[in-house]
Every structure is written in C-alpha cells, then in structure tokens.
Amino acid sequence: MDTIHACFKEKIGEVLLPGDVFSFRLSESGDGSIKTEKIICGPGLRRNGEEVQVCKSGILRHKQPNMYWIDSQQRRYVPAKGESVIGIVTAKSGDIFKVDVGGSEQASLSYLAFEGATKRNRPNVQVGDLVYGQFTIANKDMEPELVCIDSCGRANGMGVFGADGLLFKVSLGLVRRLLAPQSEIIKDLEKIFPFELVVGMNGRVWVKAKTVQQTLIVTNLLETCENMTSQQRQTLFKRVAEGSL
Amino acid sequence: MAKDGAAKLSKNLLRMKFMQRGLDAELKKQLDEEEKRIISDEHWFLDLPELKAKENHIIEERSCVPCEDLVYGRMSFRGFNPEVEKLMLLMNTHKEEEEDEEEDDVSRMETDITDEEMARRYESLVESMRKKFAKKRNRSTVTKSEEDVNCNVVGDQPKKVFLKPQD
C-alpha cells in the first residue's frame, strides 16, 4: 500500500506532462494488503497494464482515500458517462431526438426518457429547445445517449428548460470552478442580483435574470472570470454591485 | 408407408413422444441419454487453456464529477425560481446523505406508533380473533385463560362426548 501511494505522493501538486508513467511492482509475495488496495484514476490518467500513464498535461490532484486525477484546461468537451450537460435539440426522427452536446457526435435522446412519457403521451420537445440531461452511454466506440430521467424514473430538474435567458460557452475549467462545493464565484455573484443559472459540464451555461441588461451583465462577468485572479474578480464585482444598485 | 412394419419406421419418428408412451422407463432413459449425447456433441467449444481474469487494482474513472464533488448544475439565487431552489436543497443534501449513510446504521424507521403500543394492540387482536373462531363450547375456556395473567390453563372438565346407551 505504501509503495503505491508513495509513488503518487511526491508528485501531488506538480505539473506533469503526457507520457509520465507511474509504475509499481505488485508482484511481492504474500502481501495480501497490497492486493486489495484499489486506486481510482480520474480524468487525465490512464491505465496501461500495471502502470498508470499521464495523458494530459496539468497538475496532479488527490482526494482521500485513493483518487487521483490531472487538473487540466480545455474547451473541447468529451462526453463521459454520468455527467449532466445542456444540449440543443437539432432533429426529431422517429422515436429519438438528436441533440447537439458539443462533442464529436450528436447524442441521441429517446422520447421515452422523460418523466411521465409513454408511447401515447409524447413529451413536448421542439427542434431548438434546450435540454438538461445525463449521459447513460458515452464512450469512444458508440454514439452517446442522453436521458432526462434518473434511475428511479424521476426528472430531478432535468428535461426541457428555459423559455428566455441566454446560452453561452465557457471553458471546462470555469465550469468546474462554478460547480465546486464552496464556489467563491457563485457566492460573489449571488450578492449582485437574483438570477437563475444552469451549468452543463460541456462548457455551456444558461443564465436568466429579470431584465435583459441584468442577464447580459451576468454573462459578461462569468466570461471574464476565467482570466482574473480572485482579487480582481472581487473588485470588479463590487464595482458592478454598486453601479447597478 | 402406413403398410410398412414397425422395423421400417425412421429413428426420428420413434423418438417422438407419442411413440414412446408404450415403452419402458429404461428404454426411455436410454433414448434420452442418446439424444443428449448427440446434442452435446454438436455444441461448439474452445479448446483453450483456462485463462484467469486478472484482478485490476487500478480503476479508471472518466468523469470529473466524483473527483471534485461537483454540485448539482441547476441553480437559482435569491428566490428567482423557487422550484429550482427546492431542487438544489434536495439534490445537494441527497449527496451529503449518501456520504453519511455509510457510517450510520439504518436500524430504526420512523413510526407513528411505538413498538410497545403495537405489541399491546396485537395481543388483544389475537385474543379477540381466537374467541371469534372458537366453538361455542370452547368460548368459556378461552375467556378464562384470557383473564388469568399468567395464562395458566387449568385442567378443563372432561369434554362431553356422546355416550352410547349400554343397552
């Protein structure tokens, strides 16, 4: 156990490049404890036989007890199972909707994958609508599939949303910062004025506020947050709060 | 075809159910075994040495949601959309509960009636049902045993049976 985690520990918080390898010999005899230790490789790390290889450049992060991943920056989204994304319906064909999620392929969304939908009772979804759904299938070999329903059959806020409001695209790093458990950006934004926000893991964000101007202000603030330090951000937000009130 | 003797009937025909009704059990067993052998011979199998699947200690996780404990994606602030605010509370506490539940035991469910009340109610229910279905002659014994706290069954008087006249 110590050998495995020790290999990683020295590099936590350091910048790694694709091609770096973590290898540990698990062929030690009689070590039952080592055999049962599992390591979870998050995004950016890949298993290669008995080794772990880095495939994205970034900083190695660690979460107790045994999760490691690479914190990297990108704008292009790659669908992953279980993630919730905002999609735009592009076509209706037969029993499925084709939804654009920003990946290499359009995802398919069955019309039965909505709460309370049956063969007779079709959901009210038109081309051009925004949907918030989760991936059930998302790998490099198959077409991704979305559903707007959870395993118990409840919608949980997924489905078509947003009559008004504005949809725009941000980088994936900002999305993760917005959705972090104690996000400072969100806390600062809250203080300005009431608004509604839907964040998709594919880099798409939808904002709605009382007036068009407020919506645009929130949009601009979010887009500029990417490249500012927290100091700059807080001063900017204060100026906006004073200016708008 | 119909005029041929039994010897000229085909093997498959003889194996059919209606032709086997007159056979012995032994003959039937033999025929069954032969059939099974023929079927298993036709099954294909791989002539490879047994390969054991290696247990993997390294699990790959493609999504960053569990890594960073990301919260639910729909948010509303300062009462802009009350339904979404309710959803936020629901989904985010649901996530916290999942982490806590692993430690606690889910031993007692919340009940409207306590266990003792339930036991008392059930006791009286059992008695009243027993009385209802007891025969008229036995009803008195049932009530007697009910009153006695320790349920000591005192020996009954001998049951009254029909006495045949000795004449």
UniProtKB/TrEMBL annotation, chain A:
The keyword Zinc does not apply. Residues 165-213 form the K Homology domain. GO terms for biological process: CUT catabolic process; exonucleolytic trimming to generate mature 3'-end of 5.8S rRNA from tricistronic rRNA transcript (SSU-rRNA, 5.8S rRNA, LSU-rRNA); nuclear polyadenylation-dependent rRNA catabolic process; poly(A)-dependent snoRNA 3'-end processing; regulation of gene expression; TRAMP-dependent tRNA surveillance pathway; U4 snRNA 3'-end processing. InterPro entries: Exosome_RNA_bind1/RRP40/RRP4, KH_dom_type_1, KH_dom_type_1_sf, NA-bd_OB-fold, RRP40_KH-I, Rrp40_N_euk, Rrp40_S1. CDD domains: KH-I_Rrp40, S1_Rrp40. The keyword Nucleus applies. Keywords: Cytoplasm, Exosome, Nucleus, RNA-binding, rRNA processing. Residues 42-76 form the Exosome complex exonuclease Rrp40 N-terminal domain. It is found in: Cytoplasm; Nucleus, Nucleolus. GO terms for molecular function: RNA binding. SUPFAM superfamilies: Eukaryotic type KH-domain (KH-domain type I), Nucleic acid-binding proteins, Ribosomal L27 protein-like. GO terms for cellular component: cytoplasmic exosome (RNase complex); nuclear exosome (RNase complex); nucleolus. Belongs to the RRP40 family. This is Exosome complex component RRP40.
TrEMBL record, chain B:
It holds the Pfam family MPP6. One of its GO terms (biological process) is maturation of 5.8S rRNA. It comes from the Eukaryota. InterPro entries: MPP6. This is M-phase phosphoprotein 6-like. It comes from Sinocyclocheilus rhinocerous. The gene is LOC107752462.
